[in-house]
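Exercise: predict the structure of this protein bound to zinc ion.
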Amino acid sequence: MPRKTPPFKNYPAWTQARFFGFIRSGLREKFNRYPVKYAVLKDSSKDIETGDIYKTGKKAGEPKTVKMYECASCNEQFRQKDVQVDHIVQAGSLKTFDDLSGFAERLFCGPEGLQILCTTCHDTKTQMEKQK
Ligand SMILES: [Zn+2]
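Solution:
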């Protein structure tokens, strides 16, 4: 069976798709350490009182709070595990070296390029982008 794509010249053991997939996942890992991501997450968070009160310890008598994050699409409040930091404009594809600067610029955008979405709204957005 013929290969779908020929070996990539810089590292013939890999196809071009695998080569750029490797670089893309490396940059995406770095995005997970990008301070702007956490600044946006923090800005969308609120301490909401749970209705319980600390019974013991330094905070005894104070109301218990939980950090909640507002989804930019449905405007509901969610726990951190149920939200994602979303790129308003997708970073796009990275298939050649020519794609690299645009990809990196969109991935490491400023805070205005990011929004908080709940898992449901994020999945809906991803599905719609796939259909484009
Ligand atoms: Zn939502």
